[in-house]
Write a structure and sequence with these properties.
The protein is built from seven helices and no strands. By secondary structure, it is mostly helical. Helix 4 runs antiparallel to helix 5 and helix 6 runs antiparallel to helix 7 (about 170-200). The longest helix is centred in the C-terminal third of the chain and has 34 residues, at about 170-200. The two termini are about 30 Å apart.
């Protein structure tokens, strides 16, 4: 399981007060989700201009709104299937935007950007596809999830801002790609084991 996901229950309990505050302001979970997308766009532009400090600040704001949408839904008891789908969809858009900005900055080879992007997309796809079978409650396993990868990218931006001619950000992007592809493989194996167990119990037919 991703490192940060292990503390999911504590995270949800701690962020409930933030959700209640958003409700007092009249903010809805979907509005907060769209705000995270807006800051994702701004982050991508800042990255493309090599304005790494601004990129870090806007990524942090994007992450904050990503936290607040779920906290608000839980605090108001309004969590629903569409909200979850919208949140996950925007998460994928934001990942693409961040890597697009990195690619346009010229600090990372386009090949490595695509390598990392495909890894992130496939890792997310395998989880969603596995859980959609109804045979697996959660396939959130692997070396790293979205939060870990964004944390890595933030560290790469910070290092690149201090050593502008270095390849620190490229190395971080490569690492993100490697752990993303590894996570996709881990999730495939997890799904395979879970489905085999269900078949062996005779809960469903092999057809």
């Amino acid at each position: 399981m991703p490192i940060l996901a292990r503390h999911r229950m504590l995270y949800e309990r701690v962020t409930i007060p933030l959700g209640k505050f958003c409700l007092l302001l009249g903010l809805t979970p979907n509005t907060l989700t769209m705000m995270s997308l807006i800051f994702g766009v701004v982050s991508a532009y800042a990255l493309s201009q090599r304005a790494f400090i601004w990129a870090i600040l806007t990524v942090l704001l994007m992450a904050l709104f990503d936290v607040l949408d779920g906290a608000t839904a839980r605090a108001g008891g309004t969590a629903n299937a569409f909200g979850t789908i919208l949140d996950h969809t925007i998460d994928r858009y934001v990942e693409f935007l961040l890597l697009l900005g990195v690619g346009l900055s010229g600090t990372v080879s386009q090949e490595w950007v695509l390598f990392s992007l495909f890894g992130m997309v496939i890792a997310s796809y395998v989880r969603a596809r596995a859980e959609s079978t109804g045979l697996i409650k959660s396939c959130n396993v692997g070396f790293a999830g979205r939060l870990e990868k964004i944390t890595l990218l933030l560290s790469g931006m910070a290092l690149q801002s201090f050593f502008i001619e270095s390849r620190f950000l490229e190395w971080i992007v490569i690492v993100c790609g490697l752990i993303s592809h590894a996570t996709a493989l881990q999730r495939l194996l997890c799904a395979r084991r879970a489905i085999i167990m269900v078949l062996e119990k005779g809960d469903i037919s092999e057809s």
